[in-house]
Amino acid sequence: MLRIHFTADDLAGVRIAARPDVLWETILSFHRLRDRRGPVVFGGWRTETRARLGGEARLLAALVPSRGYFPDFLTPAEGLHGLDDGLQALRATPAGRLRSELSLLAADRTGGRTVPHSLRALADGGSEPFDRLLGALRGYHRAAVEPYWPHIRARVEADRARRGRALLDGGAEQLLGSLPPMLSWRAPVLEAAYPVDRDVHLDGRGLLLQPSYFCRGTPVMLRDPALPPVLVYPVTHGEAPTVRPPGASSLAKLVGQTRAEVLQAIGDGGTTSELARRTGVSAASASQHAGVLREAGLIATLRHGSAVLHTLTPLGAALLGGGDAQGREERCYARNGPVTS
Questions:
Q1: C-alpha closest to that of 20 among 128, 106, 149
Q2: Beta strands at 14-16 and 207-212: parallel, antiparallel or unpaired
Q3: pLDDT tens across 263-317, in order?
Q4: Of the candidates 274, 327, 273, 317, which has an alpha carbon nearest to the alpha carbon of residue 293?
Q5: What does the pLDDT look like over 129-151, one tens digit per residue?
Q6: 3-state SS string over the chain?
Q7: pLDDT tens string 66-123
Q8: Which tens digits make up the pLDDT trace of 191-201?
Q9: pTM of the prediction?
Protein backbone atom coordinates (compact mmCIF):
# COMPACT_ATOMS: atom_id res chain seq x y z
CA MET A 1 0.00 0.00 0.00
CA LEU A 2 1.18 3.51 -0.88
CA ARG A 3 0.16 6.22 1.56
CA ILE A 4 0.87 9.88 0.75
CA HIS A 5 0.46 12.14 3.79
CA PHE A 6 -0.67 15.74 3.25
CA THR A 7 -0.50 18.81 5.45
CA ALA A 8 -2.50 21.98 4.82
CA ASP A 9 0.55 23.42 3.03
CA ASP A 10 0.74 20.32 0.84
CA LEU A 11 -2.89 20.68 -0.20
CA ALA A 12 -2.17 24.28 -1.18
CA GLY A 13 0.81 23.05 -3.21
CA VAL A 14 -0.98 20.38 -5.28
CA ARG A 15 -0.61 21.07 -9.00
CA ILE A 16 -1.30 19.30 -12.28
CA ALA A 17 1.43 18.89 -14.90
CA ALA A 18 0.81 21.08 -17.93
CA ARG A 19 1.72 18.37 -20.45
CA PRO A 20 2.92 14.77 -20.68
CA ASP A 21 6.46 14.10 -19.48
CA VAL A 22 8.42 12.66 -22.37
CA LEU A 23 10.78 10.53 -20.27
CA TRP A 24 8.08 9.12 -18.01
CA GLU A 25 6.13 8.15 -21.13
CA THR A 26 9.23 6.64 -22.72
CA ILE A 27 10.18 4.54 -19.70
CA LEU A 28 6.63 3.45 -18.88
CA SER A 29 5.96 2.56 -22.51
CA PHE A 30 8.90 0.14 -22.28
CA HIS A 31 6.95 -1.69 -19.57
CA ARG A 32 3.86 -1.78 -21.75
CA LEU A 33 5.92 -3.17 -24.62
CA ARG A 34 6.82 -6.27 -22.59
CA ASP A 35 3.51 -7.08 -20.94
CA ARG A 36 0.36 -8.46 -22.55
CA ARG A 37 -2.20 -6.42 -20.68
CA GLY A 38 -4.38 -3.81 -22.32
CA PRO A 39 -4.51 -5.46 -25.77
CA VAL A 40 -7.28 -3.14 -26.96
CA VAL A 41 -5.38 0.06 -26.19
CA PHE A 42 -1.79 -1.12 -26.61
CA GLY A 43 -1.96 -4.18 -28.89
CA GLY A 44 -1.59 -2.39 -32.22
CA TRP A 45 1.00 -0.05 -30.73
CA ARG A 46 3.11 -3.00 -29.57
CA THR A 47 3.05 -4.60 -33.00
CA GLU A 48 4.05 -1.41 -34.78
CA THR A 49 6.73 -0.47 -32.24
CA ARG A 50 8.42 -3.89 -32.24
CA ALA A 51 8.69 -3.70 -36.02
CA ARG A 52 10.57 -0.39 -35.77
CA LEU A 53 12.98 -1.29 -32.97
CA GLY A 54 16.64 -2.14 -33.46
CA GLY A 55 18.95 -2.99 -30.57
CA GLU A 56 17.72 -0.23 -28.26
CA ALA A 57 15.72 -2.58 -26.06
CA ARG A 58 18.74 -4.63 -24.92
CA LEU A 59 20.41 -1.81 -22.98
CA LEU A 60 17.11 -0.47 -21.69
CA ALA A 61 16.09 -3.92 -20.43
CA ALA A 62 19.11 -3.92 -18.11
CA LEU A 63 18.04 -0.59 -16.60
CA VAL A 64 14.27 -1.05 -16.64
CA PRO A 65 13.25 -4.51 -15.43
CA SER A 66 9.77 -5.84 -16.11
CA ARG A 67 8.90 -5.48 -12.43
CA GLY A 68 10.20 -3.53 -9.49
CA TYR A 69 12.57 -0.63 -9.12
CA PHE A 70 14.07 1.37 -11.96
CA PRO A 71 16.46 4.27 -11.29
CA ASP A 72 15.02 7.69 -10.52
CA PHE A 73 17.68 9.39 -12.66
CA LEU A 74 15.91 8.08 -15.79
CA THR A 75 12.99 10.47 -15.26
CA PRO A 76 14.34 13.94 -14.35
CA ALA A 77 11.83 16.76 -13.99
CA GLU A 78 13.13 18.35 -17.19
CA GLY A 79 11.34 15.64 -19.17
CA LEU A 80 8.29 17.91 -18.95
CA HIS A 81 10.05 20.31 -21.32
CA GLY A 82 10.84 17.82 -24.07
CA LEU A 83 13.24 15.03 -24.99
CA ASP A 84 16.34 17.16 -25.51
CA ASP A 85 15.99 18.92 -22.14
CA GLY A 86 15.24 15.63 -20.41
CA LEU A 87 18.24 13.82 -21.88
CA GLN A 88 20.50 16.77 -21.10
CA ALA A 89 19.41 16.64 -17.45
CA LEU A 90 19.87 12.86 -17.40
CA ARG A 91 23.39 13.27 -18.80
CA ALA A 92 24.18 15.66 -15.93
CA THR A 93 23.34 13.09 -13.22
CA PRO A 94 26.06 13.30 -10.53
CA ALA A 95 28.36 10.28 -10.47
CA GLY A 96 27.57 9.51 -6.83
CA ARG A 97 23.83 9.42 -7.44
CA LEU A 98 24.36 7.30 -10.52
CA ARG A 99 26.34 4.68 -8.61
CA SER A 100 23.89 4.70 -5.71
CA GLU A 101 20.81 4.15 -7.85
CA LEU A 102 22.47 1.51 -10.01
CA SER A 103 23.50 -0.31 -6.83
CA LEU A 104 19.88 -0.22 -5.68
CA LEU A 105 18.84 -1.64 -9.03
CA ALA A 106 21.43 -4.41 -8.78
CA ALA A 107 20.36 -5.27 -5.25
CA ASP A 108 16.71 -5.42 -6.30
CA ARG A 109 17.51 -7.66 -9.26
CA THR A 110 20.25 -9.88 -7.86
CA GLY A 111 19.57 -9.95 -4.12
CA GLY A 112 22.55 -7.78 -3.27
CA ARG A 113 25.16 -9.30 -5.54
CA THR A 114 27.41 -7.19 -7.75
CA VAL A 115 26.20 -4.84 -10.46
CA PRO A 116 25.65 -6.79 -13.70
CA HIS A 117 28.30 -6.35 -16.37
CA SER A 118 25.82 -4.51 -18.63
CA LEU A 119 25.53 -1.77 -16.00
CA ARG A 120 29.05 -1.77 -14.58
CA ALA A 121 30.52 0.53 -17.24
CA LEU A 122 27.70 3.01 -16.71
CA ALA A 123 28.22 2.93 -12.94
CA ASP A 124 31.96 3.48 -13.39
CA GLY A 125 31.33 6.72 -15.26
CA GLY A 126 32.81 7.90 -18.51
CA SER A 127 31.15 9.47 -21.52
CA GLU A 128 30.92 6.46 -23.82
CA PRO A 129 28.54 4.33 -21.69
CA PHE A 130 26.32 7.36 -21.09
CA ASP A 131 26.32 8.20 -24.78
CA ARG A 132 25.15 4.66 -25.52
CA LEU A 133 22.35 5.02 -22.98
CA LEU A 134 21.22 8.37 -24.39
CA GLY A 135 21.34 6.95 -27.91
CA ALA A 136 19.24 3.96 -26.85
CA LEU A 137 16.67 6.19 -25.16
CA ARG A 138 16.47 8.50 -28.16
CA GLY A 139 16.18 5.61 -30.61
CA TYR A 140 13.53 3.86 -28.52
CA HIS A 141 11.56 7.09 -28.11
CA ARG A 142 11.66 7.63 -31.86
CA ALA A 143 10.21 4.17 -32.46
CA ALA A 144 7.74 3.83 -29.59
CA VAL A 145 6.57 7.26 -28.49
CA GLU A 146 7.21 9.97 -31.07
CA PRO A 147 4.77 8.65 -33.74
CA TYR A 148 1.94 8.66 -31.18
CA TRP A 149 2.79 11.89 -29.39
CA PRO A 150 -0.20 13.93 -30.62
CA HIS A 151 -2.58 11.27 -29.30
CA ILE A 152 -0.66 10.93 -26.03
CA ARG A 153 -0.69 14.67 -25.52
CA ALA A 154 -4.40 14.91 -26.32
CA ARG A 155 -5.30 12.26 -23.75
CA VAL A 156 -3.13 13.88 -21.06
CA GLU A 157 -4.59 17.31 -21.80
CA ALA A 158 -8.11 15.89 -21.56
CA ASP A 159 -7.31 14.38 -18.16
CA ARG A 160 -5.76 17.66 -17.03
CA ALA A 161 -8.93 19.52 -18.01
CA ARG A 162 -11.00 17.06 -15.98
CA ARG A 163 -8.81 17.48 -12.90
CA GLY A 164 -8.77 21.25 -13.35
CA ARG A 165 -12.56 21.33 -13.34
CA ALA A 166 -12.58 19.35 -10.07
CA LEU A 167 -10.07 21.80 -8.59
CA LEU A 168 -12.21 24.78 -9.58
CA ASP A 169 -15.38 23.16 -8.25
CA GLY A 170 -14.09 21.99 -4.88
CA GLY A 171 -10.43 22.80 -4.33
CA ALA A 172 -7.52 20.44 -3.82
CA GLU A 173 -9.54 17.89 -1.86
CA GLN A 174 -12.06 17.46 -4.67
CA LEU A 175 -9.19 17.25 -7.14
CA LEU A 176 -7.59 14.41 -5.15
CA GLY A 177 -10.96 12.73 -4.83
CA SER A 178 -11.43 12.88 -8.61
CA LEU A 179 -8.32 10.81 -9.38
CA PRO A 180 -8.74 7.37 -11.02
CA PRO A 181 -10.28 4.57 -8.91
CA MET A 182 -6.96 2.96 -7.96
CA LEU A 183 -6.30 6.09 -5.87
CA SER A 184 -8.40 6.72 -2.76
CA TRP A 185 -8.50 10.07 -0.95
CA ARG A 186 -9.16 9.74 2.79
CA ALA A 187 -8.11 13.10 4.16
CA PRO A 188 -5.34 13.75 4.90
CA VAL A 189 -3.95 10.63 3.16
CA LEU A 190 -4.02 9.57 -0.49
CA GLU A 191 -3.81 5.76 -0.77
CA ALA A 192 -3.19 3.32 -3.58
CA ALA A 193 -2.44 -0.36 -3.96
CA TYR A 194 1.33 -0.66 -4.44
CA PRO A 195 3.85 -3.47 -4.86
CA VAL A 196 5.57 -2.43 -1.60
CA ASP A 197 4.33 -0.89 1.64
CA ARG A 198 5.39 2.76 1.63
CA ASP A 199 4.56 5.99 3.44
CA VAL A 200 5.43 9.30 1.75
CA HIS A 201 5.36 12.45 3.88
CA LEU A 202 5.21 15.54 1.68
CA ASP A 203 6.27 17.84 4.54
CA GLY A 204 4.97 21.02 2.95
CA ARG A 205 6.50 20.43 -0.49
CA GLY A 206 3.18 19.87 -2.25
CA LEU A 207 2.68 17.26 -4.98
CA LEU A 208 2.90 17.33 -8.76
CA LEU A 209 0.19 15.17 -10.36
CA GLN A 210 1.47 13.77 -13.66
CA PRO A 211 -1.14 12.06 -15.85
CA SER A 212 0.42 9.42 -18.10
CA TYR A 213 -0.77 7.57 -21.18
CA PHE A 214 1.50 4.56 -20.65
CA CYS A 215 1.14 4.25 -16.89
CA ARG A 216 -1.19 1.35 -16.14
CA GLY A 217 -2.74 -0.33 -13.13
CA THR A 218 -0.97 1.46 -10.30
CA PRO A 219 0.53 4.93 -9.89
CA VAL A 220 4.28 5.43 -9.74
CA MET A 221 6.43 7.61 -7.48
CA LEU A 222 10.13 8.31 -7.31
CA ARG A 223 11.89 6.17 -4.70
CA ASP A 224 14.21 8.86 -3.32
CA PRO A 225 12.19 10.84 -0.73
CA ALA A 226 14.55 13.81 -1.10
CA LEU A 227 13.49 14.40 -4.72
CA PRO A 228 10.54 16.72 -5.50
CA PRO A 229 7.37 14.64 -5.02
CA VAL A 230 5.61 13.57 -8.20
CA LEU A 231 2.76 11.10 -8.57
CA VAL A 232 2.42 9.55 -12.03
CA TYR A 233 -1.02 8.04 -12.60
CA PRO A 234 -2.81 6.53 -15.61
CA VAL A 235 -5.22 8.47 -17.76
CA THR A 236 -8.51 6.73 -18.46
CA HIS A 237 -8.57 4.42 -21.47
CA GLY A 238 -11.82 3.13 -22.93
CA GLU A 239 -12.66 -0.54 -22.84
CA ALA A 240 -12.54 -0.62 -26.61
CA PRO A 241 -11.73 1.72 -29.48
CA THR A 242 -14.72 3.88 -30.26
CA VAL A 243 -13.54 5.24 -33.58
CA ARG A 244 -16.50 5.10 -35.94
CA PRO A 245 -16.84 5.75 -39.66
CA PRO A 246 -17.95 9.23 -40.68
CA GLY A 247 -21.65 9.77 -40.14
CA ALA A 248 -22.05 6.74 -37.85
CA SER A 249 -23.27 8.78 -34.86
CA SER A 250 -26.49 10.72 -34.65
CA LEU A 251 -24.55 13.74 -33.36
CA ALA A 252 -22.31 13.70 -36.43
CA LYS A 253 -25.38 13.50 -38.66
CA LEU A 254 -26.79 16.55 -36.91
CA VAL A 255 -23.79 18.88 -36.80
CA GLY A 256 -21.22 17.23 -39.06
CA GLN A 257 -18.42 14.80 -38.26
CA THR A 258 -15.60 17.27 -37.54
CA ARG A 259 -17.85 19.62 -35.59
CA ALA A 260 -19.09 16.67 -33.51
CA GLU A 261 -15.48 15.70 -32.79
CA VAL A 262 -14.67 19.26 -31.71
CA LEU A 263 -17.68 19.29 -29.39
CA GLN A 264 -16.63 15.94 -27.91
CA ALA A 265 -13.03 17.10 -27.57
CA ILE A 266 -14.03 20.09 -25.45
CA GLY A 267 -15.06 17.75 -22.63
CA ASP A 268 -14.26 19.57 -19.39
CA GLY A 269 -12.72 22.48 -21.27
CA GLY A 270 -9.94 23.27 -23.69
CA THR A 271 -8.17 26.03 -25.58
CA THR A 272 -8.34 26.30 -29.35
CA SER A 273 -4.87 24.80 -29.75
CA GLU A 274 -5.82 21.92 -27.44
CA LEU A 275 -8.95 21.23 -29.49
CA ALA A 276 -6.85 21.22 -32.64
CA ARG A 277 -4.46 18.65 -31.16
CA ARG A 278 -7.27 16.49 -29.77
CA THR A 279 -9.10 16.32 -33.08
CA GLY A 280 -6.17 16.44 -35.50
CA VAL A 281 -7.30 19.58 -37.34
CA SER A 282 -5.56 22.91 -37.80
CA ALA A 283 -5.92 25.65 -35.19
CA ALA A 284 -7.77 27.78 -37.75
CA SER A 285 -10.25 24.98 -38.43
CA ALA A 286 -10.76 24.33 -34.70
CA SER A 287 -11.40 28.04 -34.15
CA GLN A 288 -13.92 28.15 -37.00
CA HIS A 289 -15.84 25.11 -35.73
CA ALA A 290 -15.79 26.45 -32.17
CA GLY A 291 -17.26 29.70 -33.45
CA VAL A 292 -20.18 27.88 -35.06
CA LEU A 293 -20.80 25.85 -31.91
CA ARG A 294 -20.67 29.02 -29.82
CA GLU A 295 -23.21 30.79 -32.05
CA ALA A 296 -25.49 27.76 -31.68
CA GLY A 297 -25.31 28.08 -27.89
CA LEU A 298 -23.51 24.74 -27.42
CA ILE A 299 -20.28 26.13 -25.97
CA ALA A 300 -19.12 29.22 -24.10
CA THR A 301 -15.79 30.91 -24.74
CA LEU A 302 -13.76 32.98 -22.30
CA ARG A 303 -10.46 34.73 -22.97
CA HIS A 304 -7.60 33.80 -20.65
CA GLY A 305 -4.49 35.83 -21.37
CA SER A 306 -3.53 35.23 -24.99
CA ALA A 307 -5.63 32.06 -25.22
CA VAL A 308 -9.36 31.38 -25.24
CA LEU A 309 -10.97 28.62 -23.16
CA HIS A 310 -13.99 26.76 -24.52
CA THR A 311 -16.44 24.94 -22.24
CA LEU A 312 -19.75 23.17 -22.83
CA THR A 313 -22.99 24.96 -22.05
CA PRO A 314 -25.82 22.93 -20.44
CA LEU A 315 -27.39 22.65 -23.90
CA GLY A 316 -24.11 21.41 -25.40
CA ALA A 317 -23.63 18.87 -22.61
CA ALA A 318 -27.21 17.62 -23.05
CA LEU A 319 -26.76 17.28 -26.80
CA LEU A 320 -23.47 15.50 -26.40
CA GLY A 321 -24.85 13.11 -23.81
CA GLY A 322 -28.08 12.35 -25.60
CA GLY A 323 -27.03 12.53 -29.22
CA ASP A 324 -23.96 10.34 -28.96
CA ALA A 325 -23.49 8.59 -25.63
CA GLN A 326 -20.50 6.69 -26.91
CA GLY A 327 -18.79 9.94 -27.81
CA ARG A 328 -18.06 10.60 -24.16
CA GLU A 329 -16.04 7.37 -23.98
CA GLU A 330 -12.31 7.26 -24.50
CA ARG A 331 -11.47 7.53 -28.20
CA CYS A 332 -8.40 5.64 -29.36
CA TYR A 333 -6.56 5.66 -32.65
CA ALA A 334 -7.60 2.55 -34.50
CA ARG A 335 -3.97 1.53 -34.92
CA ASN A 336 -2.91 2.19 -31.33
CA GLY A 337 -4.31 0.47 -29.80
CA PRO A 338 3.48 -1.38 -11.57
CA VAL A 339 5.80 -0.45 -11.86
CA THR A 340 7.65 1.27 -9.05
CA SER A 341 10.53 3.63 -9.42
A1: 149
A2: parallel
A3: 888 876 788 888 888 888 898 999 999 999 999 888 888 776 677 888 888 788 7
A4: 317
A5: 888 899 999 999 999 999 988 78
A6: CEEEECCHHHHHCEEECCCCCHHHHHHHHHHHHHCCCCHHHHHHHHHHHHHHCCCHHHHHHHHCCCCECCCHHHCCHHHHHCHHHHHHHHHCCCHHHHHHHHHHHHHHHHCCCCCCHHHHHHHCCCHHHHHHHHHHHHHHHHHHCHHHHHHHHHHHHHHHHHHHHHHHHHHHHHHHHCCCCCEEEECCEEEECCCCCEEEECCCCCEEEEEECCCCCCCEECCCCCCCCEEEEECCCCCCCCCCCCCCCHHHHHHCHHHHHHHHHHCCCEEHHHHHHHHCCCHHHHHHHHHHHHHCCCEEEEEECCEEEEEECHHHHHHHHHHCHHHHCCCCCCCCCCECC
A7: 888 899 999 999 999 999 999 999 999 998 999 899 888 888 765 554 556 667 777 7
A8: 999 989 999 99
A9: 0.75
Contacts of 235 (CB under 8 A, 6+ apart): 155, 156, 158, 159, 211, 212, 213, 215
